[in-house]
Amino acid sequence: MNEDFQTFLTRQQFVDAVALDFDQYGRQPELFRRIASLVLGDDFKRGGAEEGKAALIRRGKHLGFEAVDSDVLGFYLIHALETLDLDAASMARAAVLVFETDTCPGVVDGESGVWIDSQMNGLTCRRCGNCCRNLDNACAQEDVMLWERLGRKDILAWVREEPLPAGDRQYRIWVDPATGRTVQPCPFLGETPGERRCFCMIQEVKPLACREYPFTRKHARMTGCPGFGPENMSVIAADDPEMG
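The chain above was modelled as a monomer; its predicted structure follows.
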């Protein structure tokens, strides 16, 4: 594993990351079945003859098996990961399947977890603008605080605050201040005339989600980023000041 691209996930962070993966990419039937085989053991069987059912699961040793589709299996796996006492080695094996990368168990500050290799080495930004057209519009509070501190009313005008239970709140970006609707592409996406290359008009203060994209090679593939293609030797490097 490349130490420059490693991230340590505690047990809870691992479960949260798996849940995010399942939510982002929708149904991944074969992945769900492979994870179920690893996590559920004898309480899992691959789907039978019933059409549309991905698997058979048993919710307790004294209960019978029930046929479930991919959606139910995915939800049940997150529940299982939250409640079962998986050791770090088992988490690492599951992480290999989910994130499609090198992993290894570890301990940080006395808490066991798993090291994940993001495999971001070799990424080359093609300045195609695809990520700016299709990224989720979630926004970190840290981004909003930065824009407020800098007085960037031009950016803040496109931010919407949404209340959550228990007094929490979340932020959505690129919400048209005139219509209240989320827009795509990003309103701060620019394009160089005649070159078919895009650039970010708020590069120095762009959202955290943009700065960290595409997170992993799997995320790049699932969201259409061409940055790991074999043709990348001839294109602009990932540290390009206008996009990467």
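The radius of gyration is 21 Å.
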